[in-house]
Amino acid sequence: MEKLIGTICLDCEYKVANVTDLCPSCGSENTESLVIENRGTIYSFTIVHVGFGHMASRVPYALAVIDTEDHIKLTTVVEDVPDLDSLKIGDKVRFKKMDEMIGPIFQVV
Ligand SMILES: [Zn+2]
């Protein structure tokens, strides 16, 4: 299974869900890549009805902030939602794949 790779700062231990050389929290370059826990819950979300560019064909879709089990928050598209109207905060999701246009994609479990 594809892994979700992020970055941890070795100075302040800040974790972020993308690969970066510079800590977004303290600016340190003393960072290391980290495999992020691929399970999480929906922290907040919105249903997108109007897309543009490469997202236009996806609408309607769920755009959510996921709180992973190691407490990293990331914004992601959630796929395989059986019913967008019944999606709610706290629903369990897991990492599905990395999309080169969109970034990480999660799915409802
Ligand atoms: Zn830092």
Strands in their spatial order, largest beta sheet: 4-5-6-8-7
Instruction: Give the overall silhouette.
Output: globular
**CATH architecture assignment name of the largest domain:** Beta Barrel
Strand content: over 45%
Q: Summarize model confidence as the mean pLDDT.
A: 93
Structural class: mainly beta
Provide a count of the helices.
0
Largest sheet: 5 strands, mixed, barrel
Low-pLDDT windows of residues: none
Order of helices and strands: EEEEEEEE
Cα end-to-end separation? 15 Å
Number of strands: 8
The set of bound ligands, ions and cofactors reads: zinc ion
CATH class of the largest domain: Mainly Beta
Total number of distinct structural domains: 2
- Helical amount among residues, as a percent range? under 10%
Calculate Rg over CA atoms: 15 Å
CATH fold-level topology of the largest domain: OB fold (Dihydrolipoamide Acetyltransferase, E2P)
Structure characterization notes:
The structure is a single chain. With 109 residues, the protein is mostly beta strands. The protein has 2 domains: 4-35; 38-108, OB fold (Dihydrolipoamide Acetyltransferase, E2P). It is 0% helix and 49% strand. It has no helices and 8 strands. The strands form 2 sheets. Strands 4-5-6-8-7 form a 5-stranded mixed barrel. Strands 2-1-3 form a 3-stranded antiparallel β-sheet, with no helix packed on it. Strand 5 and strand 6 form a beta hairpin. The protein is globular and about 40 Å long. The two termini are 15 Å apart. The model has no long low-confidence stretch (mean pLDDT 93). It binds zinc ion (ZN).
